[in-house]
Amino acid sequence: MASSTTTHSLPTPLIHLRNHSSRRTCCSSPSRSSASRRLKLSSPKPKFPSLKFGKFESRYSRVGVVVVTGAYVAAPASDPNVSDNEVKLKESDSQRVLCLLLGFCLKGRFFEILIGRRPEPLWMLLTNVGILYAMEPIFTVFFIVNMGTIWEKVMAALRAVVFRRILIQQVEFFDRYKVGELTGLLTSDLGSIKDIVSENVSRDRGFRALSEASFSTLSRSFRYNLHTFCPVPPTCSSFGAAYGFRFWLSRSTVPVFQAHGKAQAAISDCASETFSAIRTVRSFAGEKRQMSVFGSQVLGFQASGIKLGIFKSANESLTRIAVYVSLLTLYCLGGSKVKAGELAVGTMASFIGYTFTLTFAVQGLVNTFGDLRRALSAVERINSVLSGTEIDDSLAYGLERELSSRELHDENLKLFYNNGSSESYLINSHYMSALKSARNGCSQAWSGDIVLEDVHFSYPLRPDVEILSGLNLSIKCGIVTALVGPSGAGKSTIVQLLARFYEPTRGRITVAGEDVRTFDKSDWARVISIVNQEPVLFSVSVGENIAYGLPDDNVSKEDVIEAAKAANAHEFIISLPQGYDTLVGERGSLLSGGQRQMVPANVQSMSCGDKFPYRIAIARALLKNAPILILDEATSALDTVSERLVQEALNHLMKGRTTLVIAHRLSTVQNAHQIALCSNGNIAELDRNFLSFGLDPYLFHLLLFALAAEVQL
Ligand SMILES: Nc1ncnc2c1ncn2[C@@H]1O[C@H](COP(=O)(O)OP(=O)(O)OP(=O)(O)O)[C@@H](O)[C@H]1O
């Protein structure tokens, strides 16, 4: 190979000109070579400050600058016409590292030294390469650890924002979306966004792939392009075509990704629905039906997965076609040039190296594009769920106020607070701050009646069906009102309005004469306790489940025990293997078969295991001590002991409170101070003496139906 100059200055147009000419020196005109030397000597001084690297400095610098300036690879490291002063370059650390990388890994010179066509010692070359190989993993660890940490923090903040945004939606939002869909947002959708970084910090993907691909293309273009190496334009155009087509393809795959995400959410929805209602499924022998529903979701997911696979394969094969066309062009055109002596073998070899680098980089980019598409459709799904809905202003305002005003001792809550007032711009703070605290509502509810005045209501998802049509009901302070009526009459709807899960579409609800809408809804829960037939227990200990009655307070163990005693649950709880610390399973299933055997037989008989959650709920309500109590009476038959225990607990709970009982038993109705019959979205108040003669439960229900059908309200 011909030898000419060592180049060592910054990449100015002047230097490019010189480099091109120096390259030609090896193959063609000597006059251009001398011209290049003249130009080289007049090159500007390097701008970078000098750093002493001892012996290695000049060698690395020289090698590196050759590449940076796009010099011809056949240029030797030393040139007798160049003075030492010129050779000693002054570059920064990063420039040196870049020089090392570029000089040894990407140049034809590397191959030529390896095959002995150049005089430089091989050990020197291998030492340099070894140093580079050692540095790479160190920087990789640094890069991945930092990127990973930053991105994990971003994702935690994002998860907190989405969770909080879901929590403060109005109740109808939860009617509209299934549990699986919402959990899917927090798991698989946010997971796809997380993958953008976590999957793309690896060597061959993401930013690295992008920089490698760009650099390979650019350096190829600068070094070989236009003058001598005709394979470059066809290679670049095939890659260009592949990129263009991929861009079009990526746009058309977004709906496919979305459909795939939806299908995945449907699977998790079906699974969570089935498992959460497992007792109902069992009791109806519904396993086969659930399997069929699940099967159809899985098949849907499979179909969308296959469709997605087809798009992915199109992407893959397109990339490969581009690579192989590029390589074939290179072999044909480059090979003929080597044969004709117009091109050095090392150059050809390095060009093949570039092409492979580009191949891997483009492959990495394809994967990154795939991640981006998935992430984009996930963002779109999260947006479509959360943007079209209305947040519950009052709840959002209350939470915002709590989180920002309070001394936060709970580290976990700081995650939500630090992300700050992301919702504050959505809230009408001026209006909200004028609302009265629910503590005022509490004190008024202890002394005043609750009145529903001409209440009309339709559920937001079925606005054309009026459930309550001008309903009037007065629930007297401190006494028990029994609400009776046939199924679907609207009893639970009244409860939901009193709890302020929904607001009446017309009319109003008052407490001691004050419209409930003048009270802050965010802590309205203080005013009302609700005990459902099927109370929900959380997957924490029995004690914590009772303490949930006052979730924001530090409830002492003594208070929990006192509440449990009043709810007649204490005996049963202490008979459990870990007492109050016994963990409650999902949906309140308390004991495994083995644990049941450890509970003494006499306790088991009085445990009314199935009604245990009901008594825990009573204990919770006792702890909460709200002035208004709403009770959906347990319908399932209890044995005499259980019935007595539960009734005693309820009597305890109802004492002195304004109580509304959705009554399913004659005894409850007979003991109530006031009876309201709900039918056709309206109320008729009944005289309790009307039922004071002995009726058996069957006759009682018959009578209710007859009344509901006959009474013109
Ligand atoms: N979230 C909802 N969205 C739309 N319609 C609803 C919703 N909840 C209940 N409904 C409808 O409102 C009507 C009244 O239901 P509601 O649950 O209040 O009756 P109910 O008297 O409590 O019946 P049951 O004694 O069987 O519980 C029913 O037709 C029911 O289908």
UniProtKB/TrEMBL annotation:
This is ABC transporter B family member 28. Keywords: ATP-binding, Membrane, Nucleotide-binding, Transmembrane, Transmembrane helix, Transport. It is a multi-pass membrane protein. Residues 113-374 form the ABC transmembrane type-1 domain. Residues 450-705 form the ABC transporter domain. Its main location: membrane. Residues 24-34 have a biased composition (Low complexity). One of its GO terms (biological process) is oligopeptide export from mitochondrion. It comes from the Eukaryota. PROSITE patterns: ABC_TM1F, ABC_TRANSPORTER_2. Residues 23-43 are annotated as: Disordered. InterPro entries: AAA+_ATPase, ABC1_TM_dom, ABC1_TM_sf, ABC_transporter-like_ATP-bd, P-loop_NTPase, Type_1_exporter. It is found in: Membrane. One of its GO terms (molecular function) is ATP binding. Gene3D superfamilies: ABC transporter type 1, transmembrane domain, P-loop containing nucleotide triphosphate hydrolases. One of its GO terms (cellular component) is mitochondrial inner membrane. The chain crosses the membrane at residues 122-145, 344-366.
